[in-house]
Amino acid sequence: MEKFIKISKLADLKKIKNPVKFLAGGTDIYPLLKDGFLENEFFCDISGIKELKETKIKKDVLEIGALVTFSDVIENPVFKKYANALYESALVMGSPQIRNRATLGGNIANASPSGDSIPPLFVLKAKIKTNLRTVDIDRFFMGPKKTILKKNELITRIIIPKEQKESYFMKVGPRKALAISKVSVAMAFKMQKGVLKDVRVALGAVGPTVLRAKKTEDFLEGKHLSDRIIKKAGEIVSSEAMPIDDFRSLAVYRRKVAGSILEKILEGRLKWVR
Amino acid sequence: MKVVGKSIPRVDAYEKVTGRAIFTDDITFPGTLYVKILRSPHPHARIISINTRKAEKLSGVRKIIKGIPFEEMKKKHAIFAIGGCIIDQLPMAANKVRFVGEPVCAVVADDPDTAEEACKLIEVKYEKLPAVFDPRKAMEKDAPLVHPKLGTYKILPGFYPVPNSNIYHHYKLRKGDVEKAFKKCDVVIEREFSYPHMAHCQIEPHSAIAIWHSPDRVEIYSSTQSPFIVRDFVARAYNLPYSNVRVYAPYLGGGFGGKSDVTIEPLLVYIAKHIPDRWVKLTLDREEMFVGTVVGRGVVGKYKIGAKKDGTILACEIEYILNSGAYGEYGINVLCGGSQNSTGPYRIPNVKVDGYAVYTNLPYVGAFRGYGHPEGHFMAERMIEILAQELKMDPVKLRLKNALRAGDKNAIEQRLTKANGNLPLCIKKTAQAIGWKYNSKNVEKVKDGFIARDVSAFMKSPVQATNAHVTAIIKFNEDGTANLLITTSEMGQGSSTVYVQIASEALQIPVEKINFIRKRDTEFLAYDWQTVASKGTYAGGQAIIKAAEDAIQKIKQTASKAFRVPLKNIKYKEGFVYVKGKKLPITKFVNGFMFPDGRTVGGPVVGYGIYTPENLQIPGIKKKGLGEGQGNISASWTFGAQGVELFVNTKTKKIKIKKIITAIDAGKIINPKLARGQIVGGMVQALGQAIMEKIIYSQEGVNRNPRFTDYKIPTLEDLKDIDIQVIFVESPDKKGPFGARGLAEHSTVSIPACVANAVSRALNIEINEIPVNFIQISRR
């Protein structure tokens, strides 16, 4: 039995008999492999499946292949247009070398609470399509590094509705490049006559999975942006975060900074309104 | 001067940018075997048993090697113990492990993967022992002893271990009477400080390849800054004649002190001894670079300083505790250098320093760029800042008032002269360049936070052996070109280029005619202590000038014989010999002078020059007329000042560096571009230490961030918006080559203090702990 197989068509998925780990860009797999965590695993290289590398612009949705890389997200103007938060997260994720290899599907499947593409996908109301089903991203993650994916279930596409929404992403890491987020915030909303509508806020690295900040969303819904409102929203988001102390950071810091980042995003937006 | 003072291109540039330069890991010999080390998972434990049966059966495994306990070695009359100043370590743990990462067993196999695989099959049984990680706790009476036999270890004179404790050296420095002086002070303040363990993060990991030729000859190729020290340690540990040990050091991809003294070499030789006549190779992986070799820094301290109302500092009392980890050889002199210089570059008439080098169950601390100075200066420069606040005085003015000047005596009673440089001028220039506003807070409120500035001063001297010789050889070839041979290591700092410039200037021939020999080999070249202590240019340069003078003298001697004129009537200038009104090229003399009939006088010209530090003393040995711990340990001093302007974001708690400046009086600058490069590199390294670096240990002494995922050092991305300035003040040195002094480590010394001062002032808090980061800021 071979430990490593490679498939080049989605249809070949059915032929795989043993449980496998899918290998796309390999940027998360490789360190684990080196540490000996995946010694008994079988691997299936999917990086050659062409149909998963495309991004299709449909009437109502953007259909993104799971093998689209972060560099693709930066370079293809369609992302900036319909999924700005995702585009902004790609800009600050990893390094150019990592962005060239790392895929969106991989970032989702790895299910790290600090995965940079995940908060944007939460606020963009993304759906995750696999070879078996389609699920809302809200229901996809079960815990740190845990998802609802069954054995040999493969993320094939990410579907984002093409709404006329604004969306933003910001993160704070230990340094500018190649840094795991300590806290990240994504938010999306519609601005109708100066009033926030359909607000969504998601927080990265401050809980077991990426979290929706629902109290903050409820608070901001229907509000006119003002300095007072922004400050209050920052406080609410800080209270909603559920960070932990670990060797990378302190809970108190993550909580505070989640508020600061949200404020910063909204302040930027407010300046623009004025 | 023709080439000294000019930024000629690096002589090693071409081979490095084309990837042809040879580093240790590039070297393999036919039949080379590969080594992987099994390391201890416990900080302190007795080794009960090591079962290698399964591992031995793995195909491709050639040998599995365990440590030999002291007692067994004694029976065989061979103790492979490592050390110079204190001999406290075996090449491989036996009986006991003392830190997480200590070598327990080695596998030698046909390839690295097999060796690694075999390591996983080895079963080691341990009995855990109580461990200690905090140096202050380690100094307590009932602390677990890391080395219960400390009192029996061999130790050089001048070092003072405290038996039945973890203090393996207590360095005392006494000048004047601090008790009396504090009573005269108007202000006395006292604070505590801490500086964590850090990693050198050289891009090239440690690598060595060695062979034990039976019966008793050893060859080692190693990524070392110190081929002669490696030879010394290996020869002594294995009782070999020095002539039978050859150490070869190829190019180094960064050293920063982490490749000085010895590192993996005695271990690899121990392994090679067990499988003679085969080359064995060991290259550490990145994680092992954090846990399996020396780490840096790790100081906690207490500092008391007192001054008169007008700012005159009268006394300081310093406790400087080095968290030295499990073994002492590497840290013992860091402690001396660090504590000796912890007064900062100030004139303080009464000084009391107690430096303690303390064993703990952590990886051992070794040299790291700055050699104890950044830690001491962090304390000293923070204290000056706090003192200035207490005195309501401008901190830069306070520094200027107390700065060491020509005529002053420093803490170890050396009198400084003009040739030691101009510190006040460096401070003033830095203040000007950073935009320092005298008598103001130098903090501005801006959107989302504050902008703040600081200026701090520094001094550094080579903390060196009293016999730290350097030998240079200039060998003329028949065509008038010269080969320059010196063992000083090229590790990126640019020594080879600077040496060619010095040789060219001294020989008065163009740089193109000088071939810098890249081979650093103890078998062929003469003694060179080691490439450390910022003395490469200063000491190596003096040796080269002497070698050049010797070569010129020999050329003249040949001319004198050939033309039968007294030596004094022969002139040498720019590659020509002037004799009896004739101008003759040196090619006529460098291989002996041949008359038209074939008769020849004189011989091949080889110039020989040595640098030897004059009248240096070991600080721990009491000298007549001097206080305890005083004495002439430093051949030269370099003074300077550094400045930082930064933005503290009060929302994200992040620090953004806007400007960093070093003004340094390093005497004559031989190659301005290379000098600038080295100073900028030092500032950036220090900036990493100041705001992002720290080895984090778990409660069981396990390194939690042994890789670049979680141990962050600055990248280009972090630097691109920073305004970096280097200012050279060039007061010539008396002895240094063409007036040059050392400058390699200096720019790392006061940046952390600058950052802590600026942030403290901006936020009205006191930061006395490194790194200055969001964790510290958000705790308040």
Verbal overview:
The complex is a heterodimer of chains A (274) and B (780). With 274 residues, chain A is of the alpha+beta class. Chain A has two domains: 4-161, 2-Layer Sandwich (Uridine Diphospho-n-acetylenolpyruvylglucosamine Reductase, domain 3); 166-273, Enolase-like, domain 1, CATH 3.30.390.50. Chain A has ten helices and 14 strands. Chain A has helices spanning 29-34, 70-75, 77-82, 84-91, 96-101, 104-110, 118-123, 214-220, 227-240, 251-273; strands at 4-6, 21-23, 43-45, 55-57, 61-65, 127-130, 134-136, 141-143, 146-147, 155-161, 166-172, 183-192, 195-204, 211-212. Chain A has a five-stranded antiparallel β-sheet, with helices on one face. A four-stranded antiparallel β-sheet of chain A has the order 11-12-13-14. In chain A, β13 and β14 form a beta hairpin. The longest helix of chain A has 23 residues, at 251-273. Chain A is globular. The termini of chain A are far apart. The mean pLDDT of chain A is 93. With 780 residues, chain B is of the alpha+beta class. Chain B has three domains: 31-129, Aldehyde oxidase/xanthine dehydrogenase, a/b hammerhead (Aldehyde Oxidoreductase, domain 3); 296-413 and 421-464 and 619-779, Aldehyde Oxidoreductase, domain 4 (2-Layer Sandwich); 465-611, 2-Layer Sandwich (Aldehyde Oxidoreductase, domain 4), CATH 3.30.365.10. Chain B is built from 19 helices and 30 strands. In chain B, the strands form seven sheets. Chain B has an eight-stranded mixed β-sheet with strand order 3-5-1-12-9-10-11-21. A five-stranded mixed β-sheet of chain B has the order 7-15-14-13-8. In chain B, α11 (373-391) runs parallel beside α18 (751-763), α14 packs parallel to α15 (536-563) and α16 (672-691) crosses α18. Chain B is globular, with a radius of gyration of 27 Å. The model of chain B has no long low-confidence stretch (mean pLDDT 95). Chain A binds chain B through residues 31, 36, 172, 174-180, 247-250, 252-253, 256-257, 260-261, 263-264, and chain B through 120, 651-654, 692, 696, 704-705, 708-710, 712, 714-715, 717-718, 774-775, 778-779.
